[in-house]
């Protein structure tokens, strides 16, 4: 259900001159700039080819620092330029609760307690649910200032750039809706390795009201080299104020051979050096490097900017404050492919809370949708729903509406792979439910035993759905006894085939089945891409251990207007808003 290629827009054009320090910035990295080839892994690392060829003659120690810059790289893009001074509060001094996220692909529980920080990293449309009463980690405010917790988090679209983007027309970039930019300050440990476009990019971005952060691409393999890089970075960045953090970009192949202890010490050396000079710092890298090469204790101290391209959400299981989600973006004013980013922490507000002016999240810069996925303990607190088919016979939808206990209905559209298998009451149920103001979604019951059959089912399903709008997702119902003996790999491929086809056609796809099937018969990677509607009756909580945002908790309920037993559901996500705001499911 997590829409793989759907984009959400949000705009912030606010240039704040800040004397206040940012303390929780995401680690960022710019791939197109350094052309770093990431080591391939079997689950969460993407390999990139070099985009830029360099022919430069270097002498002495510079050769070590230049070596890998021309070989491989990941580019991250941030698009909001703002200024921020360094924070004076260290991680050990703050008592704020760290806002964390599960892998974006596996959203975490949204707590109903007002005492818990609102997790904006695993949810869609975060601004609708700002309920936190705590401050983002490593953030402090002037003694005389009373902060507004509703301003701590804000989704913003950005880019990251370097000399490889050439001369940028920042006026056009601003007009395109870019809210922030992370600018490469340089690389290596020599002053001569400053990015030649750094000053121009910072000055012009800020002049056009774009918030700014910076990153330093590292080749350090020792703590001493990291300290040198930090000092050189400071000399480059010290003449400007920043609204976003200063990121340590650590991803080079020369560092992948180091132990986690060595890499962690290098990260700590760079970040702590700059924080001692008053800057808010973060770590940038790709998923596998962050997960395997940097100790939790170090990642917890600094903001994280994670790079993971062409996925619905990062395959990263720890906290992150910014996500570089593609290296093939485009923005007016910049030639060629571009790294695109999304930030979840409202860094400009944290940098200059007294002068910050809020702007709604309406930027034209596209960022991926990140729907809410929860693991609630009871069927309470969400929208109340039912799911029905022709087996409920002719439903009196007026009575259903008047009862007041049904907010939405998931309708069976059909089953199998032939158009003759359309649910006989689908059209009637669709028209009557919506005419009474009841939101609708749909499900397709599958008998597919091959990906080819699943594709046929998906095409017939889309034929049935065509020309209609749905406020709730379209679910792939995979549970039939005839497929019980098939392997996890086979069933995963079948599910992926159906759901991916639906999303290619503009629908918001999801998976539905019972707890045991979801736990044992499908690869959990699917739940990072599509939302789950789990069925488990007569329990306080489903035994399914993954993320879900809809629960079918009874099959023996009764509703006025419906003959016999009916399935009851609860949904914990505002799907109607997602569909309408992002033009999905016919909207």
Short characterization:
The chain is an alpha/beta fold and 587 residues long.
Main features:
TIM Barrel, single chain, alpha/beta, 2 domains, 8-stranded mixed β-barrel, 24% helix, 16 helices, 587 residues
Describe this structure as you would to a colleague.
The longest helix has 17 residues. The strands form three sheets. Strands 2-3-4-5-6-7-8-9 form an eight-stranded mixed barrel, surrounded by four helices. It has 587 residues and is of the alpha/beta class. Helix 11 links the parallel strand 11 and strand 12. Helix content is 24%, strand content 19%. It is built from 16 helices and 18 strands. It has two domains: 362 residues, TIM Barrel; 200 residues, Glycosidases (TIM Barrel). It is elongated and about 75 Å long.
Count of all domains: 2
- In the predicted model, the low-confidence regions spanning at least 5 consecutive residues are 1-134, 363-375
- The percentage of residues in β strands lies in 15-25%
Radius of gyration: 25 Å
Instruction: Provide the CATH architecture of the largest domain.
Output: Alpha-Beta Barrel
Largest beta sheet: strand ordering? 2-3-4-5-6-7-8-9
Q: Which homologous superfamily in CATH is the superfamily of the largest domain?
A: Glycosidases
Give a topology summary:
Layout: E1 7-9, H1 31-34, H2 62-66, E2 153-161, H3 170-175, E3 180-187, H4 198-207, E4 211-217, H5 223-237, E5 246-249, H6 253-256, H7 260-275, E6 281-286, H8 287-293, H9 296-299, E7 303-307, E8 322-329, E9 338-345, H10 347-351, E10 366-368, E11 383-388, H11 397-403, E12 408-415, H12 426-435, E13 439-445, H13 451-465, E14 474-477, H14 488-504, E15 509-514, H15 515-520, E16 531-535, E17 550-557, E18 566-571, H16 575-582
Parallel strand pairs: 2-3, 3-4, 4-5, 5-6, 6-7, 7-8, 11-12, 12-13, 13-14, 14-15, 15-16, 16-17
Antiparallel strand pairs: 1-10, 2-9, 8-9, 11-18, 17-18
Helix pairs in contact: 5-7, 13-14
């Amino acid at each position: 259900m997590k829409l793989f290629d759907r984009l959400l827009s949000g705009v912030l054009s606010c240039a704040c001159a800040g004397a206040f320090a940012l303390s929780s910035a995401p680690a960022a990295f710019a791939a197109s700039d350094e052309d770093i080839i990431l080591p391939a892994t079997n689950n969460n690392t993407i390999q990139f080819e070099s985009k830029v060829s360099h022919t430069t003659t270097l002498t002495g120690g510079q050769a070590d620092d230049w070596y890998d810059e021309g070989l491989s790289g990941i580019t991250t893009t941030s698009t909001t330029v703002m200024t921020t001074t360094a924070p004076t509060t260290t991680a050990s001094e703050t008592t704020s609760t760290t806002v964390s996220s599960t892998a974006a692909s596996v959203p975490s529980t949204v707590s109903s307690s007002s005492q818990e920080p609102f997790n904006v990293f695993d949810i869609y449309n975060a601004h609708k649910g700002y309920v936190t009463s705590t401050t983002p980690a490593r953030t402090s405010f002037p003694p005389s200032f009373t902060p507004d917790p509703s301003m701590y988090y804000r989704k913003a679209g950005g880019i990251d750039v370097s000399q490889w983007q050439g001369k940028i027309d920042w006026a056009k970039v601003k007009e395109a809706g870019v809210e922030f930019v992370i600018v490469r300050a340089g690389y290596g440990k020599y002053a001569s390795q400053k990015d030649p476009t750094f000053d121009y990019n910072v000055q012009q971005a800020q002049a056009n009201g774009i918030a700014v952060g910076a990153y330093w691409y590292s080749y350090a393999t020792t703590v001493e080299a990291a300290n040198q890089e930090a000092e050189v970075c400071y000399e480059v960045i010290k003449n400007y104020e920043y609204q976003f953090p200063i990121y340590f970009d650590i991803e080079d192949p020369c560092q992948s051979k180091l132990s986690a202890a060595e890499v962690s010490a290098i990260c700590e050396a760079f970040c702590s050096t700059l924080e001692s000079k008053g800057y808010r710092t973060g770590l940038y890298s790709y998923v596998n490097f962050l997960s395997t090469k940097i100790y939790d204790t170090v990642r917890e101290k600094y903001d994280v900017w994670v790079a993971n391209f062409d996925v619905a959400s990062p395959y990263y299981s720890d906290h992150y404050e910014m996500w570089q989600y593609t290296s093939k973006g485009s923005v007016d004013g910049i030639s060629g492919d571009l790294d695109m980013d999304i930030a979840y922490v409202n860094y400009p507000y944290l940098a200059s809370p007294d002068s910050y002016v809020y702007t709604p999240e309406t930027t034209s810069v596209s960022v991926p949708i990140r729907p809410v996925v929860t693991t609630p303990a009871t069927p309470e607190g969400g929208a109340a729903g039912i799911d029905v088919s022709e087996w409920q016979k002719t439903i009196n939808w007026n009575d259903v509406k008047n009862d007041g206990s049904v907010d939405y209905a998931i309708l069976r559209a059909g089953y199998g792979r032939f158009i003759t298998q359309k649910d006989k009451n689908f059209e009637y149920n669709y028209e009557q439910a919506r005419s009474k103001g009841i939101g609708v979604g749909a499900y397709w019951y599958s008998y597919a035993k091959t990906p080819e059959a699943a594709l046929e089912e998906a095409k017939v399903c889309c034929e049935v759905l065509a020309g209609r709008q749905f406020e709730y997702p379209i679910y792939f119902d995979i549970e039939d006894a005839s497929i019980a003996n098939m392997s996890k790999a086979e069933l995963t491929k079948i599910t992926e085939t159906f759901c991916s086809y639906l999303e290619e056609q503009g629908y918001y796809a999801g998976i539905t089945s019972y707890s045991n099937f979801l736990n044992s018969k499908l690869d959990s990677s699917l739940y990072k891409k599509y939302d789950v509607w789990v069925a488990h009756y007569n329990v306080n909580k489903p035994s399914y251990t993954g993320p879900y945002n809809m629960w079918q908790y009874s099959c023996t309920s009764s509703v006025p207007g419906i003959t016999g037993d009916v399935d009851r559901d609860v949904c914990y996500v505002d799907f109607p808003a997602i569909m309408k705001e992002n033009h999905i499911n016919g909207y």
